[in-house]
């Protein structure tokens, strides 16, 4: 799990880092912690979906923590942002950035450990990242943001929930191997893989997806493919209800 710590006070940064490593050791985790001394440097090195958790000091140099978080949210809506500050003055602005928590300094071990424990409960659904190369760049997409993957000659088109389509130079069969290991993806035709969480309905031998995407379904297996989606949807609803009842 990748964690970023953006803190311009060297003493505070060392204190938080030590607490993170203590939490890692106590819980037998594998953490990778990158430290930055200001928001500008962090944003220059920031990549969408690279970090699961970001600890962000509010009061920093020319770009404060709130402004840095607002820039993060322009591309990454899933990372957990935890603000660090000596005052609660900016709490309303912090939560407008969909902050997970707001910790006043000096942060105690108990407070950091409790927030991290809570944060970990949210990560299994949000931390799965699909990584691939396109136009000499490394692209990271959350599994949940992938709508469909379609073969396109020697390339493969991948469309996300924001309407962006990328075309990496890769064979379809090789490209989708990591995705087919996840039960939310369904092969509906030769060279067409869809995320069942983005299916709206099946109609007239086509699969309708979010973003006004319509893709042809293999005619001979149309009924089985539609039933696979219905079974998946039922299983998801059942799992959510079971979890809700368990937590009561």
Give a quick rundown of the structure.
By secondary structure, the protein is of the alpha/beta class. It contains 9 helices and 15 strands. The strands form 4 sheets. Strands 2-1-3-4-5 form a 5-stranded parallel β-sheet. The chain has a 5-stranded antiparallel β-sheet with strand order 10-9-8-12-11, covered by helices on one side.
Describe the structure.
This protein has 248 residues and is an alpha/beta fold. It is built from nine helices and 15 strands. It is elongated, with a radius of gyration of 21 Å. The model is unreliable at 242-248 (pLDDT under 50).
Question: Radius of gyration from the CA trace?
Answer: 21 Å
Q: How many separate helices? A: 9
Give the SSE order as H and E letters. EHEHEHEHEHHEEEEEHHEEEEEH
Distance between the termini: 29 Å
What is the helix fraction of residues, given as a range? 25-40%
Structural class: alpha/beta
Query: Could you tell me the strand content as a percent range?
Result: 25-35%
* Tally of DSSP β-strands: 15
Overall pLDDT metric: 87
Poorly predicted runs are 242-248
Shape: elongated
Side by side, the strands of the main sheet go: 2-1-3-4-5
Q: Could you give a short account of the major beta sheet?
A: 5 strands, parallel
Keywords:
single chain; 248 residues; alpha/beta; five-stranded antiparallel sheet; disordered C terminus
Secondary-structure blueprint of this entry?
Layout: E1 2-6, H1 10-26, E2 32-36, H2 39-45, E3 53-57, H3 65-73, E4 80-85, H4 91-96, E5 101-104, H5 109-120, H6 123-126, E6 129-134, E7 137-142, E8 146-152, E9 155-160, E10 165-166, H7 172-175, H8 177-180, E11 185-189, E12 192-195, E13 199-203, E14 206-209, E15 213-216, H9 222-247
Parallel strand pairs: 1-2, 1-3, 3-4, 4-5
Antiparallel strand pairs: 6-7, 8-9, 8-12, 9-10, 11-12, 13-14, 14-15
Helix pairs in contact: 1-5, 2-3
């Amino acid at each position: 799990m990748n964690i970023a710590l953006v803190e311009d006070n060297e003493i505070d940064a060392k204190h938080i880092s030590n607490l993170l490593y203590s939490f890692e050791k106590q819980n037998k985790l594998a953490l990778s912690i990158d430290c930055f001394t200001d928001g500008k440097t962090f944003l220059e090195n920031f990549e969408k979906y690279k970090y699961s958790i970001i600890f962000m000091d509010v009061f920093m140099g020319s770009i404060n923590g709130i402004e840095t978080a607002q820039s993060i949210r322009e591309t990454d809506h899933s990372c957990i942002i935890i603000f660090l500050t000596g005052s609660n003055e900016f709490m309303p602005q912090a939560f407008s950035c969909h902050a997970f928590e707001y910790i006043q300094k000096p942060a105690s071990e108990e407070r950091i450990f409790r927030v991290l424990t809570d944060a970990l409960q949210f990560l299994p659904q949000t931390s799965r990242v699909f990584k691939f190369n396109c136009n000499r760049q490394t692209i990271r997409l959350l599994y949940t943001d992938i709508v469909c993957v379609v073969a396109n000659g020697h390339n493969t088109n991948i469309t996300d929930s924001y309407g962006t389509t990328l075309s990496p130079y890769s064979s379809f069969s090789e490209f989708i191997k990591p995705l087919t290991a996840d039960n939310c993806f369904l092969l509906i035709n030769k060279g067409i893989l869809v995320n069942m969480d983005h299916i709206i309905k099946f109609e007239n031998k086509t699969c309708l997806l979010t973003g006004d995407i319509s893709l042809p379904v293999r005619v001979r297996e149309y009924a089985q493919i539609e039933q696979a989606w219905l079974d998946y949807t039922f299983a998801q609803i059942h799992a959510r209800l079971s979890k809700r009842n368990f937590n009561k």
